[in-house]
Hints:
This protein has 245 residues and is of the alpha/beta class. The chain has two domains: 1-92, Rossmann fold, CATH 3.40.50; 118-244, TIM Barrel. The chain has ten helices and seven strands. The protein has helices at 2-8, 22-28, 48-59, 72-77, 81-90, 104-113, 135-140, 171-184, 188-197, 212-221, and strands at residues 12-14, 36-41, 64-69, 94-100, 119-123, 144-148, 204-205. This is Aldo/keto reductase family protein.
Amino acid sequence: MLNNAKVGGVLILDTSSAYGNAEEILGDVKAGESFKIVSKYPKCDNTVAETFNNSLKVLGIDCLYGYLLHHFEAYRENKPVWNDFVQLQKEGKVDRIGFSLYEPWELDQILKDGIPFSLIQVPYNIFDRQFEPYFKQLKEMGVEIHVRSTFLQGLFFKDRETLPEKLQPLKKYLIQLDEYAASKGISVGDLALNYNLYNPYIDGVLIGVDNKEQLLQNFASVKDIEINLDIKVEELELLKPVNWQ
C-alpha cells in the first residue's frame, strides 16, 4: 500500500507512539526512506527526549520531519515541556515542531505565549471551519498547516434517514452537502476531500485508510473543480464526535 501511496503523490505519513505498533510497522517497511514522517508526543511518564528517541529507533531513521505535542493539556499543565521540543530541533533531530489541537482557544493560548512553532495539525472540513480565521496569520508566521477530520469522522457518509436523534440537527446541513455535490456531478466524498485539498492555506490533508482500495479511491476523488460552498453550522458542539454519544 505504501508503494501506491508514493506513486500517488503522498509525501508525509502521520503516526504516533500512542498508535499501538504503528511506528514499528513503518520501521519494518523502511517507510522513512520514501516519506517524511510526523510523529507525536503523547501523555506518558517518559520524557520528551526519551519518547522521541525511541520513535527514531523503532522507525529506523535519524530525524523526523515533524514532532507534535499530542495533547494540549500537557503543555498547559507544564509549559516548560516545550523547551524539550525546541532542543530537539536545535539538535537537528526534527525539522518542524508544533501541536495537534482540537479547540481554537488552545491556539489562542499558544499565540499569546509567543512560543516558536512551525507545524500545526487541526480538525477542518466543510462543516467545521473554526480554525480557518487563523490560517492567514499562521502562514505569515511560517507555520505549516495540516488538517484532519476531512470527512468529519464519517458523518458525511451516514444515511440521512437513519441519523441518531442527537445528530438530527445536522441533517439539514447534510442535505445541503448532497445537493451541492449533485450539482457538480461528484460524490460527497469527492466534495469533502477537494474542499480541503484546494484550500490555499492548507499544506497537508490527513486521510486514514484501512486498505489499498480505500487509498486508490481517495486518489480517484481528486478532481479539478471549483468549489464555492459556505455552509454555516450553528450547532458547533455537534461537530465534535465526542458529543455524539
